[in-house]
Design a protein that fits this description.
Structural class: mainly beta
Helix content: 10-25%
Largest sheet: 8 strands, antiparallel, barrel
Shape: globular
Length: 134
Amino acid sequence: VDGKSMKKLNQAAMLLALAFSATTVFADIELKTKEEVVGTWKLQSTKNTASEKEEALPREDTWIFKDGKLTILHIPREGKYYDQPPVNYEVEEGKLKVSQVGSSRLDFFSLVEKSETKMILKGKFGGYYYFDKK
């Protein structure tokens, strides 16, 4: 391989590396304690991906993190609303671990972004949850 071919090969590899790095939108933030999410959070919308092109689905429920329990209120279902009873939550390996109602199964969420007034969680299957603090 001559110098000219090697230079083209290196340029192609760099462009490919840039293309892959440009698609990385969010990096997870490691949670250290369950107190980091304490509060009442209005779920504004959800999306399957972090893509700006994907339309967000509006949501109406409110998540309350308090004393190691998560209560979800005002969940729309078939034209009515219901409240989910409290379930345990904790932080394990930097992720939010939430019990499912009536099951031994768990949901895991990664913290993507958090400020005093906004929070984004990513579910274990990649869905994004956009919250505003109440």
